[in-house]
Amino acid sequence: MELNFIQLLIFGIVVALATVIGGWVLFPSGIYKNYKKSLKYLLALGAGFMLAVTFVEVLPKTLLLWQTQKNLPDIGDTFYIPMLLFLIGYLLTQFFEHTIAPHFHLGEEVHTDHQIPVKSAYAAIGGLLIHAFFDGVSISAASQVGSEIGILMFIAIFLHKFPEGFTIASLVLATGKGFKEVLIATSLVGLTTLLGVIGFYLIGTNLEYTVAYALPLAGGVTLYVAASDLIPEVNHHGGKNPLVSISVFAGVALFFLLHYVLHLYLEG
Fold first, then answer.
1. Which of 64, 163, 216, 227 has the most neighbouring CB atoms within 10 Å?
2. Model confidence pLDDT, tens digit, residues 86-115
């Protein structure tokens, strides 16, 4: 069973709002202080959840698609193309984030007394726009495989949207801009995620086999965000605090719990 357009639209709106709220928390000082303390745990939880979604849901579902669907190209090995697409998704994210538009790591706070050039901030946000678009594609592509994997992918994306909004706001504030510019930047990134959700839904439902190509590509992006963006941040901010590392395992455990609950609900 696939998720319908209204459900996907709601998912897209929720993750877009999460980006905006993640930037907004930099302004009320009380909320900021509490959020700053919990940020490393949220990063770790999101990393564990995203890793579990990638390896337990996205990768197996991708291989199943390429094994069962007819008329897909076969270059000697049935799984050569989907694995290549996983790698391309991973490398594309590396390319856009750290070559075309390098940006600060997720969750890194930058204070306004440490100024950075406006062009650097815009370039960084440009990289995040590419990232955000593929977040939306990931939700939509996963949902066209099945409602269970779609919901799990939505949760995985949702968990790292707050730190992403925090990062965007930090970049904007570091250029000397204020609340208005933060709201514009976070809204733009949030809307780009929503555009990815809607855009792929419209394309994927009209072009046969699109999901067989989009799912592994989006899976590579998700793997990069979890393993190369979030995990290094967890290691950096966690220091010697074992609770941060444990939060990664808590994210994996949360995935299996929700996976079990969704399976019972959807199958029942």
1. 216
2. 999 999 888 877 776 555 455 554 444 556
- Is residue 68 assigned to a domain? no
In angstroms, the CA 159 to CA 132 distance is: 13
- Residue 19: what residue type? T
Backbone angles phi, psi at 77, to 5 degrees: -115, 130
Q: Which residues pair with 77 in a beta bridge?
A: 75
Q: How many domains does the chain have?
A: 1
Q: How far apart are alpha carbons 34 and 136 in whole angstroms?
A: 29
Query: Which residue range forms the structural domain that includes residue 237?
Result: 5-26+88-241
Longest alpha-carbon distance in the chain? 59
Q: What is the dihedral of CA 96, 14, 199, 161, to 10 degrees?
A: 10
Neighbours of 224 (CB within 10 A): 22
Q: Does residue 32 lie in a domain region? A: no
Q: Where are the beta strands (DSSP E) in the chain?
A: none
Domain-located, residue 59: no
- The answer as to whether 82 is a domain residue is no
pLDDT in tens, 118-132: 777 777 788 788 889
Do 185 and 109 touch, CB atoms closer than 8 A? no
Question: What's the pTM?
Answer: 0.87
